[in-house]
């Protein structure tokens, strides 16, 4: 395995993006990180001094504030002493196996502001755009293959957890960067309002679609569309209906001839949108490429993924411009 996956996962631990409050688990991960970077535990006195200085690099800030330095140090030493002779590859393997147990592993992370109470018609900035109330909470939005997690930045408390099967719809407003998720868990319905870069829309468009079981599409002829939803699915009579669908072909710079076509979308200026691969376990900063893509078009990488999956499932693909 690629041993560099350990530092990448450790970064998410230190940032508080993989929330955990179990000392034995975080102590063991810290020891694996030390064995990976520093090598074998040798001189006890020297190692204890080194660990004391490295605590901020071994544990997330919220956990350091909740525990005594001596408890953190002892937890690391206890595990570190048992790792003598363990190779970097084995350290990486053990580290990732532990991280796989976290619900957040494999997520793409977005900066966001969770809005607990918001009246759009009353709150405006100097330019007349909707602004945010003082009570807003800075959060990470973690999106992986099964769900969306909203994690508070200051203390890594999981504010909300939304499995895709409960995500009824998601809409976005490009002028305010407001993102609204409608959640229906069969007992209650609620809305979650977040201010976040538009990239979250693209990721959710792909993941929420691909995570739905095939039988769910086969049992319905049309998926309910929210106001600004990016995708609608219908049951076509055959694959030729997909290939010959005019609204689908209009989106492409090249005609569709086979099921293996590699489409390229046009933006509003008829310029091709660059293909950028999305990598899991990647933090997307506010100024990343997502903000440069017109929100009325699906990113080409995601469009290709959706088109391929649709053709496999015998579904029709349609686009809706955003309001």
Automatic annotation (TrEMBL):
InterPro entries: FERM/acyl-CoA-bd_prot_sf, FERM_2, FERM_central, FERM_domain, KRIT1/FRMD8, PH-like_dom_sf. It comes from the Eukaryota. Signal peptide: none annotated. PANTHER family: FERM DOMAIN-CONTAINING PROTEIN 8, KREV INTERACTION TRAPPED 1-RELATED. One of its GO terms (cellular component) is plasma membrane. Coiled coil: none annotated. PROSITE patterns: FERM_3. The lineage of its organism: Eukaryota, Fungi, Fungi incertae sedis, Cryptomycota, Cryptomycota incertae sedis. Residues 1-229 form the FERM domain. This is FERM domain-containing protein. SUPFAM superfamilies: Second domain of FERM. Pfam families: FERM_M (PF00373).
